[in-house]
Design brief:
GrpE; Nucleotide Exchange Factor Grpe, Chain A, domain 2; about 220 residues; protein homodimerization activity; three-stranded mixed β-sheet; three-stranded antiparallel β-sheet; cytoplasm; chaperone; rod-shaped; GrpE_CC
Length: about 220
């Protein structure tokens, strides 16, 4: 046998079998065929999880928005209650201020009224002295000046004389002590004589006028 013939079987023995004829070749091909599906499975799961994540994010934002709205509503309610309380306190203070002002004014007027009531009889006496015949002109002038100063003081204190002479009798302002026959030109019920002047303080009677009325 020649050397070439011997080398041929040796060469054939050294060559490996084709891949499709090797043991386990079918399993390798199957694994390679199955691997693309295995790789696609996580991607599909991720695609399915993505909407869930989005839904969870929106739900979280909705919960946060609802919580924020609840806090805002609570803050608005608290502010409304505080405003209402503030308005109530302001109204109570305004009523208190007005009440104390009226009370202080009333006390002042009561004090002035009492003082005027004590001074009026003195003025009555001075008026009688001013109207009486007197030879001493300086004395009479002094009395008249005193009456003028008293009138100015009364004006400052808002004390006014009640004008009644020649007017119809008013029991709210006058006290009638006598009735006389009406003279010619006088109407019945008209004041014809004033015995004592009447005075008011801010419209309140300090002393009623004492008068004579025509029948």
């Amino acid at each position: 046998m020649s050397e070439e013939t011997k080398k041929a079987p040796e060469a054939e023995a050294g060559n490996p079998e084709p891949a499709d004829q090797q043991p386990g070749g079918e399993e390798t091909a199957a694994a390679e065929t199955a691997s693309p599906g295995a790789q696609e499975a996580p991607e599909a799961d991720a695609a399915k999880d993505e909407p869930k994540k989005k839904d969870g994010w929106f739900n979280k934002k909705n919960r946060e928005a609802e919580a924020l709205k609840a806090k805002l509503d609570a803050a608005e309610k608290s502010a409304a209650q505080a405003k209402e309380q503030l308005l109530r306190v302001a109204a109570e203070y305004d009523n208190y201020r007005k009440r104390t002002t009226r009370e202080a004014s009333q006390k002042f007027n009561d004090g002035v009224s009492y003082a005027v009531g004590q001074i009026i009889p003195i003025l009555d006496t001075l008026e009688m002295a001013a109207g009486a015949p007197c030879a001493d002109e300086n004395y009479k002038k002094g009395v008249t000046m005193t009456l003028e100063k008293a009138a100015k003081a009364f004006q400052t204190l808002r004390v006014e004389e009640i004008e009644v002479l020649g007017k119809p009798f008013d029991p709210n302002l006058m006290n009638a002590v006598q009735q006389v026959p009406a003279q010619e030109g006088q109407e019945s019920g008209t004041v014809v004589t004033v015995y004592q002047k009447g005075y008011t303080l801010d419209g309140k009677i300090v002393r009623h006028a004492t008068v004579v009325v025509a029948e």
